[in-house]
Amino acid sequence: MNTLHARENATERISTGSEGLDDILGGGLDPNRLYLYEGRPGTGKTTIALQFLLSGVTKGERVLYITLSETERELQLVAERHGWSLDGIEVFELVPPESALDPERELTVFHPAELELSETIKLIFEQVKAVSPSRVVFDSLSELRLLAQNSLRYRRQVLAIKHFFAQRECTVILLDDLSSKDDDLQLHSISHGVISFEQLAIEYGAERRRLRVLKMRGIQFRGGFHDFVIKKGGLRIFPRLIAAEHHTTFTDESVSSDVKELDQLLGGGLERGTNVLLIGAAGVGKSSLALTYVLAAAGRGEKSVFFAFDEGRGTLEARARTLGLELHEKVEAGLIRFQQIDPAELSPGEFAANVRRSVENEGARLIVIDSLNGCMNAMPDERFLVLQMHELLSYLGQQGVLTIIILAQHGLIGPMETPLDISYLSDAVLMLRYFEVNGSVRRALSVVKKRSGNHENSIREYRLTKGGIQVGPPMTGFRGIFTGSPEYLGDNETLMPLNSDEHG
How many CB atoms lie within 10 A of CB 2? Predict the structure, then answer.
């Protein structure tokens, strides 16, 4: 397909009513075609169908909702909870309300069980001819399947519906709640496109919802699963992140921590468009080190976003105050944003969308993920976490963003276990360790890996003080730093003096 033809097709697309789904489909749906939305009850089919019709109403189109399963009152309730109005949507109801037997009520509704299939189809066709809509939603095929009683008759009637609408300038969405025991693949062959909606129950936390485009003739779409949530205002769909689609030109320069000795250890600092993994035991100072970079970025007038999976904003601000790092002013100025993340309530797709919004809309130049352990709890499978982190880190790298990832190792002393190994994804790895000298607990920092540029191979002691993080000169005489049980055998001259302002 040449570029001109592709551009013409893109201008002819119509919106699904969801910005996220339009993005997945590369611009929306081809008009005057028949599509299938399938999924179990509760997956959001009715909501996304109403969004499709409301999108048409905003453009002044005539739209029709044909319902054999939900009453107009039920549809009205769905609309009200999303802050919508059904004004402008013609609802043709084939489900009798409670007052359907009232002899004084004008007979305008029908019960499908009391009609032959052909008569039901005839009533639907007559209503479409009377309204002449440009968008139609048919809810649902389950009742039509029951009326047909056998698969051959059902397929013929669905084909009849398709041929009827093919003669009219009308885009049709069929809803199917998958009540049949077998997958209705024959319906897939008839439809121009098929989108599957799923709801997953996890062992703890809120249910997860996702969709997948199974088929879309003539439209290049993003494959795979895409997370979504149902909130007031409709379905919020988060297209799966593909890093290769996003690239921004940026200046390749080192980013300073404003701690001279730390920058020296890192060979001049960390480079933009790279990511660094901070690993170590609980309480060793990983978050404090990350906060040091956040304050340094704010001092340069750059924006940072701190995603906290494990601690609340109040705890982090209190930690910063003990280190003499005043965050409040920078937070109020909009240079630093803390976002508390509840991994039990957040899907991976929503988190990735949040990170993208921070970079593209807020202009964040530094992203902190504290910690990867908490992020792991949001993922149903460790394999997918590695893949999703790979895409996310690739995306941030192409945007020129410095990313700091914190990973807590199990245990305080002795051999420490890392719950997940993503060191091969990291451009730099900083190891933080406790060590003991003459009955006092101290901290050591070393650069295990740094892809871009040189770095010191030495180990430096560091302290958490009221004046922030202080890093000492290179040290020798260590043994067992990688076993998790560092032993210092050197002299005391290279040790940093212990003061009363040091914090644990």
Answer: 7
